[in-house]
Amino acid sequence: MALLTLASAKGSPGVTTAAMLFGALWPRPSVVLEADPSGGDIALRMPAADGAALDSQMGLSSLVAAGRKSLYPALVDVHAQRLVGGQKVMVGVATPEQARGITQWDTLGRLFAELPGHDTIADLGRVGAGTPQNSLVEASAACVLVVDTLPSNVVHLRERIRRLQETFGRMSGPALSVVVVAPPKRSRAVREVREALEKSELDVGAVHHLAYDPAGAAFFLGQITGNPGRTQLVRSAQPIVEDLARQTESSFVAPEAASPAGDAEQEVTS
Ligand SMILES: Nc1ncnc2c1ncn2[C@@H]1O[C@H](COP(=O)(O)OP(=O)(O)OP(=O)(O)O)[C@@H](O)[C@H]1O
Ligand SMILES: [Mg+2]
User: What's the 26 CA to ligand 1 centre distance in angstroms?
Assistant: First the structure.
């Protein structure tokens, strides 16, 4: 039942790839929520469990349409789909115009933060001042900011973290950590990002190194060949996922301990 959010401040460092990767390695049942208002990529990249294309009309847009009056956990199952390999996914909006029609971001935050039996790993895309998906950051137990090693992007990341912490307050907001996507041999660049963040005295937890690995990333573009478990991408992600899963453990509630029968249809309210 923990909501883990992943976002970037600038650039396209690999947020969607990291969200799918973390979902694939997550030790508890999880749903990958594609909540990037600029438009989803998963349905365009990945096949469904049966090998056919994912239904691009079935996902976040259809969920909020069905839940216009009452958004409750059982609807998530109806509108989620399964990727090849079995991962549950809530496909994102097809266009930014569709995202503009979504008015229930606050309710979505609470819904996914309290989903019985599943953690949610949400791809928020790029977050900025007043982006609607910021409500999901607020509702999350932990938020991972993904960045590459480009110095200008690191500066934007630092400013975004500063603003997020000002908005949510250091104590009440999600635990923030950083994932730096860099070639496996460039751990020095990752250290430099860590040092830059330490100097700015922001309240950031771990700064992890996720391998820049085109062969591993290709798996999440639907090029499913070989054993992804052997890729540098997956190997570098394993300790990150362990750390995040541990960090969010206390927010997970097993399905049997969740709402008693009948409550599944209860509306998520403030
Ligand atoms: N760790 C990685 N190693 C190598 N290539 C990667 C990695 N992560 C992502 N890529 C590649 O970079 C491109 C962008 O990745 P992705 O869509 O995950 O980024 P994003 O941050 O979600 O971008 P956007 O801002 O468009 O949503 C894709 O071609 C993807 O395969
Ligand atoms: Mg993306």
Answer: 19
Whole-angstrom Cα distance, residue 251 to residue 245?
Answer: 10
E runs forming strands in 35-91: 81-82, 88-90
CA 248 to centroid of ligand 1, rounded, Å = 25
The whole-angstrom separation of Cα 199 and Cα 90 is 38
Q: What is the pLDDT of residues 136-194, one digit of tens each?
A: 999 999 999 999 999 999 999 999 999 998 887 766 789 999 999 999 999 999 999 99
Indicate which residue's Cα is closest to atom 16 of ligand 1. Answer: 14
Q: Per-residue pLDDT tens for 114-138?
A: 999 999 999 999 999 989 999 999 9
According to CATH, what is the number of the domain 3-258?
Answer: 3.40.50.300
List residues near ligand 1 (CB under 6 A).
8, 12-17, 36, 41, 125-126, 181, 210-214, 217, 221, 233
Protein residue with its CA nearest to atom 14 in ligand 1: 14
What CA–CA distance (Å, rounded) separates 215 from 212?
9
CB atoms within 10 A of CB 244: 29
Domain residue ranges in the chain = 3-258
Q: What pTM did the predictor assign? A: 0.93
For residue 179, the cross-strand partners are 146, 208
How far, in Å, is the centroid of ligand 2 from the Cα of 5?
12
Which numbered ligand comes closest to the C-alpha of 13?
1
